[in-house]
Write a structure and sequence with these properties.
The structure holds two protein chains of two kinds.
Chain A (H helix, E strand, L loop, with lengths): L3 H11 L4 H14 L5 H11 L3 H8 L8 H16 L5
Chain B lengths: L10 E6 L5 H20 L3 H20 L4 E8 L2 E6 L2 E13 L3 E8 L5 E7 L5 H15 L2
Antiparallel strand pairs in B: 1-2, 2-3, 3-4, 4-5, 5-6
Helix pairs in contact in B: 1-2
The chains are: A mainly alpha, B alpha+beta.
Amino acid sequence: MVSNEELNRMRWAARRGMLELDLVLEPFVARCYAQLDADSRRAFQALMSCEDQELYAWLLGREQPSEPELRDLVERILAFTRTAPAAH
Amino acid sequence: MSSGYSHSPALHLPLTEPGFPPGLSYLLGAAIGLALLALLQRGQFAAALAAAAVAPPAWRALRGAGRDVAGQLCWRAGRWRLRQAGGECELQPQAGLVACGRWVWLCFRRERDGDRVTLWLYRRGMDAQQWRRLRVRLRLDLAR
């Protein structure tokens, strides 16, 4: 069970101030974060500690994170954006 | 997701003494130069000569501080190891703190005898990619 505090912290962390990232990350947190397992939530928190430029390259599919934990999560986020475009 | 550990690239992080920040060492060098000039202008040639003899090695020591690698902290397949001249030991992460985006404080427990090991890592001792991967690894490992 995800606490409201954790969810709010991640909502805040997902607001990067970069439109391309905000359009992907904020809906993912709002719709999917609470359903993630503990490992994936930890990976999301690690992902949020990365620089905007890195996130931008990963979420646009130009590069991939070297850590499998982050790579899996980025793929999951990208799959979410592909399958739920109407949500944004 | 933890099964992905075996595919994560290893991390090799240099452990360095904090030393003098480069900006501060240049400032100090300028101050030494000005002090020498002041001594010369006052006609205190003997003092200026003595100071001129001491200044270059002191400057080199300051510039060189922080460059000596005191060891290496390694992460591979979910295991942290400390490599130093005396040998290598396995560590269990206990706590960590990333501050100011410039350094990391890490607390480990040595697996062999349970002793506490505290390490400081400085951003200027590693490249941007290593720094990012360290921060990510800490987030992933320490929250477990």
